[in-house]
Structures are given as C-alpha cells and as structure tokens.
Write a structure and sequence with these properties.
binds heme C
Length: about 130
C-alpha cells in the first residue's frame, strides 16, 4: 500500500475512534455539545409543555432558569436524577399545579438524552 493511502487510513481510524468516544462518553455540564443537544431536545420531547418555551415556567411547571430549586440540589447529578425520576404530585408544595412531573417528563428518552437535558438545564440555571 502506498504511504499516503496508509496515512489516510490511519487518520480515518483515528477520527472514527475519537468520534465514537465523544458520542458515547458521559456529557458533563460544561460540555457545550451536550448543552446544545439538550437545548434542541427540550422542545422536541415536550419539556416546554410544562416549563415553558423559554423555560421560564407555566401554570403546570416552574421556571428552570433559577438556582432556587425545590426538588434537587442544583448539581448536575441531581438534575439528572430529578429529570429521570420526575416529581410525584403528592410531593408538590404548589397546590395550583394540576399534576406532578412524570418520570423523564413522560417522554421516551435515553439515559444519555437525560444527561444532555440536565446539561442544558444546568447551563441556563446559572445565567
Ligand atoms: C407534565 C408537566 C411536566 C413536564 C412534561 C415536565 N416537567 Fe419538569 N416538573 C414539573 C413539575 C410540576 C415539577 C415540580 C416543580 C414545580 O412545581 O415546578 C417539575 C420539576 C422539574 C425539575 C426540578 C425543579 C426543582 O425545583 O427542583 C426539573 C429540573 C425539571 N422539572 C425538568 C424537566 C425537563 C428537562 C423536562 C423534559 C424532559 C420536564 N421537566 C418535563 C412538570 C413537568
């Protein structure tokens, strides 16, 4: 095999590996691609129905642009937990809410997507 072809092949393998790695690695709140993915998921999977298009809250769910959390401690990990578990209606302090939050917001989302949503919420909560 010619040298340039070998180099190309090696580069291709390298690129393929790092790509595979980054998509299967755990998103962290500072991972910008996770924040962007979470942003686009937010409206697609229906979080906006209760928390508002701008995540500023509706009658059905509170604002996510806050650090004044009631059902999680504001850490990335605890945001992952609360999005995965939801909040049962019986735990709500706000009696004007018609329902709680179903696990995963009632959407069929993967663990990785939950972490992307948590990265997004974490990012907007700090602004
Ligand atoms: C059916 C309405 C509904 C949907 C859909 C929904 N939520 Fe919620 N969510 C709630 C309610 C109600 C609470 C409890 C706190 C409150 O009253 O705002 C809550 C709580 C939370 C909290 C914790 C708030 C705190 O104070 O600790 C986070 C974070 C959150 N939701 C994110 C999401 C995300 C991300 C999605 C989309 C996957 C989502 N929610 C979908 C209704 C909803």
């Amino acid at each position: 095999m010619s040298r340039p072809l070998l180099t190309l092949l090696a580069l291709g393998i390298l690129f393929g590996c790092t790509r595979g790695q980054s998509s299967s690695s755990v998103p962290s709140p500072s991972d910008e691609s996770a924040v962007i993915a979470g942003d686009s998921l937010y409206g697609r999977v229906g979080c906006d129905r209760c928390h508002g298009v701008d995540a500023g809250g509706t009658l059905n769910g509170g604002s996510l642009r806050t650090t004044n959390w009631k059902f999680n401690n504001g850490s990335f990990d605890d945001l992952v937990r609360v999005i995965a578990e939801g909040v049962p209606a019986s735990a709500l302090h706000d009696r004007t809410r018609r329902q709680g939050m179903p696990p995963r917001g009632g959407a069929a989302i993967t663990g990785e997507q939950i972490r992307q949503l948590a990265a997004f919420v974490y990012a907007i909560s700090k602004r």
